[in-house]
Known about the structure:
Blueprint: H1 4-9, E1 17-20, E2 24-28, E3 38-42, H2 54-74, E4 79-83, E5 94-99, H3 115-132
Antiparallel strand pairs: 1-2, 2-3, 3-5, 4-5
Helix pairs in contact: 2-3
Amino acid sequence: xxxxxxxxxxxxxxxxxxxxxxxxxxxxxxxxxxxxxxxxxxxxxxxxxxxxxxxxxxxxxxxxxxxxxxxxxxxxxxxxxxxxxxxxxxxxxxxxxxxxxxxxxxxxxxxxxxxxxxxxxxxxxxxxxxxxx
Length: 133
């Protein structure tokens, strides 16, 4: 059975897509820690990031870097924080979060953003991502 992230990447479940290519998909987290919280996934299902073959691991991080660069331009911040935990969904995913201080990251606190704001953020990141291609 496909993971929820595979179903999102396949378009079976709606998402706020920010970037994609043949092997990867990036979209806004629907339970964000901060505005602009992005999840980056490989399209191929794997539960644990360190189980990815070396070439897929490097490719995922290269794609995530491009998304992070677009994110930083689209959502002004000092840094883009990175987290890889992956306990809640059995599909590798990298969290990218625009932050201005370490205190901005608190996975116990989720924020609620209106759909229009999520759409605007996703469109801004996607535009920056595409301008770099």
